[in-house]
Amino acid sequence: MANNFFIPPFFAIFATKILKMEHYSDSIIIIPTYNEKENVEKIIRAVFNLDKCFHILIIDDGSPDGTATIVKRLMTNEFSDRLFLIERSGKLGLGTAYIRGFKWALEHQYEYVFEMDADFSHDPSDLPRLYSACHDDGYDLAIGSRYVSGVNVVNWPMGRVLMSYFASKYVRFVTGFKVHDTTAGFKCYRRKVLETMELDKIRFKGYAFQIEMKFTAYKIGFRIKEVPVIFVNRREGTSKMSGGIFGEAFFGVMRLRWDGWTRRYPKIK
Q1: What are phi and psi of 232, to 5 degrees?
Q2: DSSP letters along 9-61, please?
Q3: Alpha helices of 26-66 — where are they, by DSSP H?
Q4: What is the pLDDT of residues 200-222, one digit of tens each?
Q5: Alpha carbon 83 to its chain's center
């Protein structure tokens, strides 16, 4: 004779909440994508395999290669409570993607907000070190730095290494900003940094966006730490770097220097 057990509805709801708490996180990683079908599932699984629980927000700019379709499948079948997707129509720029992600993260009450590339140039195993710099050491912005302890770049053409390295030197010279890797795109922000910054006043979309975010945090008075990382050039997919991006950065730095003299930055609450 079969045993039939009645499970009260309130118990089922409670059990569901307990299961979801297993994947609770105070941290969200924002990953912009455009044509990253070779990398997106691998990077998501690599992050979710870490001991520290992170959530991921993918912001896809209408990738024609089906990147968003892969993310939706993973959301539906495996990671519904910790993987999220925003789809945008067309390539709208790296800076606008991150600003959209920052606002989403603040709306959803995350305390630590990360920037990260999809192509494994940023090693997911470094995420806990960036988190620790903010959570344990009390810094407001942690930067995964290629240049704080020498030049830690693998598989980049020498010309691009020199261009990136001296771009950061140029930023330091023009602005007086004492960060070694000013163009780094691997970062952890405390929530209060993004809340204090006037995100709608961030102007740049490409390489200069990364410089502007760091410089603004510095001018407001937030504590910044560079965490040494090794940057590895992408193995799969196509680089999104262009000459226009570098041009924006070159002239944008001069504008940032002018802002540093004339702009009234918000105060830390």
Answers
A1: -115, 125
A2: HHHHHHHHHHHHHTT--SEEEEEEESS-TTTHHHHHHHHHTSSS--EEEEEE-
A3: 40-48
A4: 999 887 778 999 999 999 999 99
A5: 15
